[in-house]
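Note to self: the last two entries modelled the partners one at a time, which told us nothing about the interface. This time every component goes in together.
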Amino acid sequence: MGSAIGGNHDKNNRAGHAALSASGGPLQHFIKTHKAPLSLILAMAVLFVIFGFLNPRFASVLNLQNVLFQISVPLIIVVGTTMVIQMGSIDLSVQGVMAASGMAWILLSPNTRLESDIGIWAWPVALGIGLGIGLVTGVMYAKLRVPSFVVSLGTLYVGLGIGILLYGNELLPTLTNDVLARWPTRLTLGLPNSFWLAAAIILAGVLVARYTRLGRGLLAIGNNESIARHSGLPVNRYKIAAFAIAGALSGLAGILATMQLGSGSPDIGLGQLFTVIPAAVIGGTALSGGEGGVMRSALGVVLLIVLNNGLVLAGVDPDYQSAVFGSILIVTIVAVAWPQRGRLKVAK
Amino acid sequence: MQYLSETLGTKTARAALLTSAMVIGLGSFGQAIAEPVAKEDMVLVVSVINTTNPYMISNIEGAEALAAALDIPLEIVNSDNSSQTGISNIMAILASGKTPIMFVNTVASSDAPTIVNAVEQAGGFVTIWWNKPDDFSPQAEGDHFVAFQKIPGVSSGRCGAQALGDALGGVGNVVMLPGVQDSTTSQTRVAGFEAEMAENYPGITILESRPSNWDPQLGARNAQDLIVKYGEEINGVWSADDGMQIGAMQSFENAGMLDSVKFASDGLYPTTIEDILSGRGNNAIVGETFHRGYMASAVGLYTAYLAAIGEIVPSELPPEQRDSLFALSCVNPGNIAEYLQYDEPDAAAKFVERLLVSGPWATEPMPLVAGGPEVMP
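The predicted structure of the combined assembly is written out below.
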C-alpha cells in the first residue's frame, strides 16, 4: 500500500509522501513494499503443499468453498481494523458492534421470535447501529483525545449491552426466511456468496487506500500525526471516518455471521478480535501505525483460518492442536518477517 | 494462603491475597454465625458466569423466583466470563454488611476456595454449582460452605450415546464436538459418551472429536471441516451442548446432509425443542438431556438459606447432601411433551413453590440421586 502514497502528489499528503520518499525508483519501491506479502504468500504455499500431502481432501474444491466461507466474516472486519491500525490506533469494539448489529438485523428480519420484519430496511438499521457506534468511538477519540484503546473498550461493552438487551431472556431468534438463511452458502461462479461479499469489501478497501485522500491520509497520520496536521490534513475528520467505517464493517460482519449461523446471539463476534488484529500484524501492518495495507491483512486472515482448517484435516489431536497451531504460526511469521525485521516495527 | 498459592497458581493466589486484604477490612464479620440469621439481615446473591448464555439467564430467573417467594432482596453478580471479575464483584457484595446467602456458578474450579474463604469470613452461606477442585470438599470447610451441587456430566454423555446408538441401529460413524477442553463439565460428558459407546454400542465408531469451546460458530466451523474430511461417512454428531449443536446442524444443512445425519446433545434449548417438534431435517435430533438453570439456582440458594436460618446444620447432614449429584432426564422425540411444562413462563415460580414444600433434595424433576464427587467411567 505504501506504493500508493509514494505516487501521490496531492498537496494534503506531503506528510505521507515525505515518509516514503526515500523508497528509490518505482521497481525497487515495488519489490521493497511487496516483499512481506510475497514471502507470506510463499510461506503459505509451503503450508498448503504440506497440508495437501497430509490429506488430499485439503486441496479439494469442497474445502476451498469451506475455507472461503469461513474467512468471509474476519475478512470484512479486517478491512476496518487495518484502516484504524494504519493510523496508529486500535479498535477493540468489534465484538460489541457485531452483537448489536447482528441482533438488531435478525430481530427486524423474518425470525422465530418477533413479528417485526421490516424487510430490506433491516439492513440500513443494523448497519447504521454499527456506523453509529463507530462514530461515537471516533468522535470521542479524535475530539476528546481519549486513547482509542480505552474508548473502543467502552464501546465494546456498550455494543455488547445493546446486543444483550435485544436478546433479553426469551427464545433464541432463528431466521425463518430460507432465501436469507441460504444466501451465504449459495454458490455464485463456484464460490460462496459470503466470500463474494467479503471480496467486494476488500476491493473497496484497497481502492479507498490507494485512490482516496482518506486512505493516504490515514497512513500519513500513522507516520507522524503532527506533520500530517501541520501540512493541513483534516486529521480529526479522517480519524472519525476510519472508526465509522470500521464500525459499519463490524456491523456488516455481525449481520453476515448471524446469517451464516441462522440464529442471533450476543456472542456472535466471540474471538473475532483475536483473529483480525493478529492477522493485520502478521500481514505487516505495524501496530505503531503508518504501514501495512488491506490486502496484506487479508492474507494474514487466510493464513490463520487455513492453518486451523489444515490441522483439523490433517487429524492433529485436539490436545496438541493449540500448541502445534502456535508453533507453526511462530515459524511462519519469523520466516516471513526475518528479511523485514527492521521495518515491521512489531518487535516492541 | 501458602497452600492456595502453591496449588492454585499465581492468578488465584493474587485473588486469595485480595480476599484476605478485604477480610481484614471486614473484621466485624470475621466470626462464625452462631445464631440463625434474621430475614431482614439477609441478601440473596446469584453469581453467574455471564448474562448472555440462556442457561445463566435461567439461573437468574430461579434466584428471582426464590427471592420473591422468600421476600428477601436479591443481588446478581455477573462474572463476565472472568474469575477475577466474579471474585471482585462478590467481594463488593460481601462488604455490604448484610449476611449473604449465595449461589455461585463458578467460572473456574479454582475460584471455589477463594470464594468460600471470603464468604466464611463474612459469616455468609454459600452453595457452589458445577465447578470446584476435587479435593476441596464442603465437609472439610465447615458450615458456611453449605454444599456443592451438580448434575452428573457422565449421565448426560450416556444419554446422548444411547440416543445416537439406537437411532443408528447400533452401526455407524459419529463425530464429537466437546466444549472447552479443560472444563470438567465437558470432560465428564465426553467420558460418559465414550464409555457408553464402548460398553454398549460396539458397532459405532467415533471418527473424531473436535473441542468447540461451547461456541456455536466454532461448532459450525469444526463441523464444516469434518464434513470436508469425512463426507458421507458421518452418520451421527454428538455435541456437549445445544449451542454447538445449533452451529453444527446449520453446517450439515448447508452441506445438504441434515436429512441423513442424526444429532444428540445436552441442554434442550428452546430452538432445539422447536426443531424436535417440527421434525427438522428428517427428525435429525434424536436425543437431548433436560435440566434447567432456574432449578439449579433455586435449589442451591434454598439449601444455603436453610443453613442460614438454622433449619439444617450442614455438618450434621449426610455426605450426599453436602456434595450432591442431581437427576438429569434423557429426552427424546417420544417423551418431549412431558418436559414442555418446565418452560412455561411461570415454571420457575411453580418449581420454587414445590421446592419450599419438598425441600432441596426431593423436588421433581431434579431430585438428589447420589453423592459426589462424580466418578469417571
